[in-house]
Amino acid sequence: MPILVSYAVADGPWAQWITHELRAAGYAVDVHIARTDFVERLLIALSGSDPVLVLLSAEHPGAAADWQRITEAGGDLVPLCLDDSTPALTCRSVHGLDEEDVLELLLGLLDRPRRQPIR
Fold first, then answer.
1. Tell me: the pLDDT tens digits for 13-70?
2. 51 alpha-carbon distance from chain centroid
3. CB under 8 Å to 36, separation ≥6 — which residues?
4. What is the pTM of this model?
5. Apex CA 99: angle with CA 119 and CA 19, to 5°?
6. Cys-Cys with 88: which of 63, 66, 67, 100 at CB 3.0–4.6 Å?
7. Among the residues of 30-115, which ranges form H helices?
8. Separation in Å, CA 76 to CA 33, 96, 110, 115, 117
9. Could you tell me if 83 and 57 are in contact, meaning their C-beta atoms sit under 8 angstroms apart?
10. Percentages (nearest 5) of helix, strand, coil residues in the chain
């Protein structure tokens, strides 16, 4: 299963750029717009061995109960904060970083040993 990139509709430009950069780096990538079915889609993806990259912003439809279900499921969840909002998940922020720094952070997160929590 490829890396799943899940994002809110408003964050489409970020998702497109990240998807392009990951594919250029040799990763297989699938994208998913976070709509009403996003929890079920993430749970399915988290049951596999590849990371699930969630792009978080003030526009993301996820509620605290959704994130609790997702984190309880385990798996290799990689949450990235795109703006300065306060998400329900602990995540690494790319807010204010330039493209080179975002790419370095992203590749570092994805190249870590699998199924390790992000600190």
1. 999 999 999 999 999 999 999 998 999 999 999 999 899 999 999 999 999 899 999 9
2. 8
3. 61
4. 0.87
5. 80
6. 67
7. 38-46, 64-72, 99-110
8. 19, 25, 9, 5, 8
9. yes
10. 40, 20, 45
| CA 99 from centre of chain | 17
Q: How far is CA 30 from CA 80, 97, 119, in A?
A: 16, 24, 25
**Tokens standing for residue 43:** 């749970």
What is the predicted pLDDT for the residue at 31? 96
pLDDT (0 to 100) of residue 1: 59
How many other CB atoms sit within 10 Å of the CB of residue 31?
A: 16
Q: Pick left, alpha or beta for residue 75 (phi over 0 → left; psi -120 to 50 → alpha; otherwise beta).
A: left
CA 57 to chain centre: 11
Give the Cα separation of 8 and 95 in Å (integer).
Answer: 16
Q: 93 near 66, Cβ under 8 Å?
A: no
| Helix (DSSP H) and strand (DSSP E) numbers for the chain | 4, 5
